[in-house]
Write a structure and sequence with these properties.
Largest interface: A-B, 36 and 30 residues
Strand content of chain A: under 5%
Structural class of chain B: alpha/beta
Number of strands of chain A: 6
Largest sheet of chain B: 7 strands, mixed
Distance between the termini of chain B: 15 Å
Helix content of chain A: 40-55%
Order of helices and strands of chain B: EHEEHEHHEHEHEH
CATH topology of chain B: Rossmann fold
Strand order of the largest sheet of chain A: 1-6
Number of strands of chain B: 7
Number of domains of chain B: 1
Number of helices of chain B: 7
Oligomer: heterodimer
Structural class of chain A: mainly alpha
CATH superfamily of chain B: P-loop containing nucleotide triphosphate hydrolases
Radius of gyration of chain A: 24 Å
Shape of chain A: globular
Order of helices and strands of chain A: EHEEEEHHEHHHHHHHHHHHHHHHHHHHH
Distance between the termini of chain A: 66 Å
Radius of gyration of chain B: 17 Å
Chain lengths: 486, 212
């Protein structure tokens, strides 16, 4: 696989994105007609959606709105089989919009933003991986490149860990409690990437524990999602407000990362969020949910590729792979949100309750900090709202969030509510010494951009945070008066 | 910028308006003098601060930048009360963001202090070719509702400084005239300790209180 540098120009294209509701039949190489939902259009273009004739619209000719996505960036030196991008290759006649888009100036051509591009990097036996992910378990082992970087003790430790996972996962009826115990401690990044994907799907009870039901259930759920997508877009866009919000938020999701700036990923995220929103009218789409889908998308992508998913341009993925990543991400996001739905319904009462509890707990465990914040006029809502709304995803690099979710998911259903609250308590408490010596403005600015970026925060910091949260939860949860001042 | 730097006044602002009109970009341009096209979307509220100089007075602006999405409205409303200045922003390239101004204005009038200075801002003035709201329309709306008005570009920085500073000038004028009860911080104004102790309000510019 050739690693090739190329500039941001080809990746961070001037903004174009999918307009759901535009559905066009595409001739595939085999001659079969597939439906492609979505079309590119330039940002700010005035689009009217008037079609309302349901399914017949699906079979209609491409409308004048429908222009094809730009060809994938195709740096010299990378060759890939021509059928990979067949469904989305550029052979449409209406190219005027793209021309205009391509001619726009590049916003950022700073050479320091050169991005290393992944090659295709697909794992072998893709068809089997899609159909029956559990088939990967038996052959899981540490990769040769990983082993080379380890000393004997590390290798033995990781092998022991992998074998424990395998023991649990090879059972015909998986013991979820045993899996929770393993996952709580974190799934080491050195282990095969399939392991986390499978574990998360099992812990969310998306993938059934019973071996006999796994293949069938996955196929059904994925089919159900594809049908939901078709249905959601069949009559054009029912909810313009929600769609527009998602449409402008998706390109603002992880703006610095190749995976989330490539158009194919953005189209997937847009469909996932829109379908979720219209299936959940009580909350609809709330900003921040766009962040919550990304750990799933990234972890499930890494099931199929041998590359660092953050640097991966998903336009290199075969469509059937992309489809199942999208469907699985949708369902797992749905499961997560089921547990914290009142964070996003009217007035966001779930978040307000969490913030009140955070304040109460800080009063109990760190009275001097609580007093200082009060003296400076800092309200918890001012900084902790985002902590709850985005589950600390704005405060930590994504790789740390993924590690935290190993534990959150192992905490049963309340990992993202109760346990998360205690993580926030431990997190705020951690900065106590600094905060106590600062004034209102310094506190606000500090809490808004905490020094948690990858360089400063290590995996061990996350482990400490999680174990402190565990300790606090054991002490205070279900003990509302413990150490409280009467 | 250290916040220990002595100030004469702290004035609190709130920035409101539809989603995607450029509220956070205006704030970033004002506080950091830079433009970030792919800005993280704002969740709830975000905070920014900068000093400005009005008639020789050191005024610290503390600014709450609010999320535009409807879902956050019940959270963001609680920030109106403590604001002496409000920047109400629309996007000159998106008509609907202008059409929603009345809703925003009603919300602001209902939840904020009656003395709050409101500046209407038509942002993205660099995108002249995509303009959907004329300057005259913006101006007429502002006149009709007693607001200040400016078109800005957070991208080129055009008028950004002016929009924040002119708002501060008007508020300072009101302070001098005794319109605000500056002893009550919930009106969005805090008087520097050295001015408070002299207990001489309103102040003129030449009473020698510039300690730095």
């Amino acid at each position: 696989m050739a690693d090739i540098n190329f500039t941001k120009k080809s990746l961070l294209r001037p903004h174009t994105s999918t307009l759901p509701g535009s559905v066009k039949p595409v001739e595939s190489k085999t001659g079969a007609t597939k439906l492609v939902i979505g079309a590119t259009y330039s940002y700010g273009q005035n689009v009217s959606l008037t079609s309302s004739d349901g399914l017949s619209y699906l079979q209609s000719q491409p409308s004048q709105l429908t222009s094809r996505r730009e060809p994938s960036p195709n740096p010299p030196g990378i060759t890939f089989s021509s059928d990979i991008n067949d469904d989305i290759s550029d052979k449409d006649s209406s190219k005027s919009q793209e021309k205009e888009v391509e001619d726009e100036p590049v916003i950022n051509s700073d050479p320091s933003t050169l991005i290393e591009k992944s090659s295709i990097g697909l794992k072998p036996d893709i068809a089997l991986l899609i159909k029956d992910p559990m088939k990967t378990i038996d052959s899981m082992k540490l990769s040769n490149s990983t082993v080379k970087q380890l000393n004997e003790t590390q290798r033995l430790r990781l092998e022991r860990c992998l074998n424990k996972f395998k023991d649990v996962l090879q059972s015909a009826n998986i013991d979820l409690d045993a899996l929770r115990n393993l996952s709580w401690l974190g799934i080491p990044n050195e282990l095969p990437s399939e392991l986390r994907s499978i574990t998360w799907q099992l812990l969310l009870e998306y993938l059934p524990c019973n071996a006999d039901r796994q293949v069938k259930t996955l196929a059904q759920k994925r089919q159900e999602y594809f049908e939901s997508v078709s249905k959601a877009y069949a009559k054009g866009i029912a909810d313009r407000t929600i769609w527009h919000q998602i449409h402008i938020d998706v390109p603002r999701t992880n703006p610095g990362t190749v995976l989330y700036q490539c158009e194919t990923t953005q189209q997937c995220l847009e469909r996932i969020l829109y379908v979720w929103a219209i299936r959940h009218p009580a909350s609809g789409y709330v900003q921040g949910i766009n962040d919550l889908v990304t750990p799933f998308f990234q972890v499930f992508l890494s099931f199929y590729i041998d590359e660092n998913p953050e640097n991966y341009d998903t336009s290199y993925l075969p469509k059937n792979v992309l489809d199942v990543i999208e469907a699985d991400s949708f369902w797992c996001l749905s499961k997560l949100l089921d547990g914290i739905q009142d964070n996003y319904t009217f007035a966001q009462v779930g978040i307000q309750r969490q913030i009140n509890k955070l304040k109460d707990l800080i009063n109990r465990i760190n009275a001097p900090l609580a007093a200082h914040l009060q003296k400076e006029g800092v309200e918890y809502l001012q900084f902790a709202f985002r902590w709850m709304n985005c589950l600390l995803m704005r405060e930590m690099p994504l790789k740390h969030i993924i590690r935290m979710w190993d534990t959150y998911l192992a905490e049963r259903l309340d990992g993202f509510s109760v346990f998360h609250l205690y993580v926030c308590v431990a997190f705020l408490d951690k900065w106590s010494d600094y905060l106590k010596s600062r004034d209102f403005q310094e506190i606000m600015i500090f809490l808004q951009s905490l020094p948690t970026e990858t360089a400063k925060w290590k995996e061990q910091d996350i482990e400490l945070l999680l174990s402190e949260a565990y300790r606090l939860k054991s002490l205070y949860h279900e003990a509302p008066n413990h150490l409280s001042r009467v | 910028m250290s916040s220990n730097y002595t100030y004469d006044y702290i004035i609190k602002y709130i920035i409101i308006g539809d989603t995607g009109v450029g509220k956070s970009c205006l704030l970033l341009q004002f506080t950091d003098r830079r433009f970030q096209p792919a800005h993280d979307l704002t969740i709830g509220v975000e905070f920014g601060a900068r000093f400005v100089d009005v008639e020789g007075k050191k005024i610290k602006l503390q600014i709450w930048d609010t999320a535009g999405q409807e879902s956050f409205r019940s959270i963001t409303r609680s920030y109106y009360r403590g604001a002496a200045g409000a920047l109400l922003v629309y996007d000159i390239t998106r008509r609907e963001t202008f059409d929603h101004l009345l809703i925003w204005l009603e919300d602001a009038r209902q939840h904020s202090n009656s003395n709050t200075t409101i500046m209407l801002i038509g942002n993205k003035s660099d995108l002249e070719s995509k303009r959907a709201v004329s300057y005259a329309e913006g101006e007429a709306f502002a006149q009709q509702h007693g607001l200040f008005f400016m078109e800005t570009s957070a991208k080129t920085a055009d008028n950004v400084e002016e929009s924040f500073v002119d708002t501060a000038k008007d508020i300072y004028e009101k302070i001098k005239q005794g319109v605000f009860d500056v002893s009550n911080e919930s009106n969005g104004i805090k008087v520097g300790g050295h001015l408070q102790s002299k207990n001489v309000l309103p102040l003129t510019t030449d009473n020698g209180n510039n300690c730095c």
